[in-house]
Amino acid sequence: MPGAGMRVSSEAAGRWLVLAAAVLWGTTGTAQAFAPAGAEPETVGAVRIALGGAALLAFAFFSGSLRTGGHRWTRPATAVAAGAIAAYQICFFNGVALTGVAAGTIVAIGSAPVFGGLLGFLFRGERPGARWAAATVLAVLGCGLLVGAGGGITVDAAGVLLALGAGLSYAAYATASKRLLDVIPSVTVVAVTFSLGGVLLSPFLLAGDLSWVVEPRGTAVALHLGLVATAVAYLLFGRGLGYIPVATAATLSLAEPLTAGFLGVLVLGERLTGPALLGSGLLLAGLVLLTVRRKSAPGG
Predict the structure, then answer these.
(1) How large a percentage of the chain has pLDDT more than 90?
(2) What pLDDT sits at residue 18?
(3) DSSP labels for the chain?
(4) Which of 107, 110, 122, 227 is the least buried, fewest Cβ under 10 Å from its Cβ?
(5) pLDDT at 2
């Protein structure tokens, strides 16, 4: 049946594209570690989105996708996607500031697949299935062990709520973008929503200290975060999201902490403890379960 084979092939490509995007997202922590002193988290996030949005907008314009008329923009979905981009930066960076990097990251990243599955079901009627559920359980457990292996986890109620807000923001962006991707090319969707998100975050650029950006090391960090970890990563994510359910994309995004952990060892000289190694194995197993599928497997 050629139609079914093409659909399975497209879904497989979508999974690999989202996985590649998550790997690029996983480089952000290492890149920020090289930022000069004085680079505040909110400012770093605002610079990242501003550069990434500008690069995406330029790419969309020169590729001709912005000049093609007739795009059927849905205003609520566009507003939600742009707002979710800005909200994620604010919720995540403030959440980890209040409750710590370990607990904040666990809650934000671990809750995203759950929110993604819920929103995908409520607004798109998606039913992820048992394979997604098993992969998500493995990946979330692995993520918790990997990120929390350093110990010293503290819990702050406000910080946890903000981290949950970050996970919900990510899922909301994926769900709203999926709605737009049904009728608009992925390049255009990502470019416009990120540009609008950058506008919403512009007050942080106006009020923050940007002196670190003009330093050579700061410029390199900003360019990597904006061009590689945002522009390229979200082009891959937008394209892949067009082929797979929201819940699947959210679970595959858990490759981000796995990549960050490996880069911490290889680049920053960090050490993986026993729990971290176990967590890495569980997380990798969940991603493999969701990504590598038998040809006869049904979609979803």
Answers:
(1) 21
(2) 92
(3) -HHHHHHHHHHHHHHHHHHHHHHHHTTHHHHHHTSPTT--HHHHHHHHHHHHHHHHHHHHHHHTSSS-------HHHHHHHHHHHHHHHHHHHHHHHHH-HHHHHHHHHHHHHHHHHHHHHHHH-----HHHHHHHHHHHHHHHHHHHTT------HHHHHHHHHHHHHHHHHHHHHHHHHTTS-HHHHHHHHHHHHHHHTHHHHHHS--GGGGSHHHHHHHHIIIIIIIIIHHHHHHHHHTTS-HHHHHHHTTHHHHHHHHHHHHTS-----HHHHHHHHHHHHHHHHHHS--TTPPP-
(4) 122
(5) 45
